């Protein structure tokens, strides 16, 4: 849909298959997403917005989630889970835009990865060192550092296009909020008004807005989440969707 909530159109057509984690390419011409294939197998697909053709990029690597193009459009990062109850930690992976040369970042476990604006680092969530926090690492696996120190991070995060800010969400069930902070984790502040159970933020290309899922108008209703936007100073909160089903996982395009 457009950034003002207009122009909504459906992209996937199979009612019998679950689709998750949509993410637009840097040129706005395609969408990455994951789709259920069979038990413990989710594949990554690329959908061309010009002709609606779909290309499967992976083949039985595992439970693949949160795919995202690098800023130059040449690489994709994603998380791979095994579905093994004895080892539920996901690996942060990368591959080229055609799905070739897939491999994990050495010794890095986590989920919900997102590229830095210069394409040199990946921001992700992990519980490998205790409570879930956000970390940054180079694609080589070097330079790992913890960014956040929040009490109940879930995972989904984003980096502003100028590289100065990151956003994520934290809090107990039904009391989650969106937070914004400097890219080094300093100057943390709550962005969203309390009471919306706000989740899954994404920055606008100009860095002045954040889009997210929340329940401000239908709090307590499992199917009541809608897509909202808000300025990074906390003003001008707006609802973009109004449906009888849950709208979630928004990612802003170019």
Question: Which terms summarize this structure?
Answer:
mainly beta, four-stranded antiparallel sheet, globular, 0% helix, 254 residues
Would you write up a description of this structure?
Helices cover 0% and strands 44% of the residues. With 254 residues, it is an all-beta fold. The strands form five sheets. The protein has a four-stranded antiparallel β-sheet with strand order 1-2-3-4, with no helix packed on it. It is globular and about 45 Å long. The mean pLDDT is 95.
- Euclidean distance between termini CA atoms: 13 Å
Largest sheet: 4 strands, antiparallel
Spans where pLDDT lies below 50 across 5 or more residues: none
State the helical fraction: under 10%
Structural class per helix/strand content? mainly beta
Number of helices: 0
Radius of gyration: 17 Å
Portion in strands? 35-45%
Q: Would you report the number of β strands?
A: 20
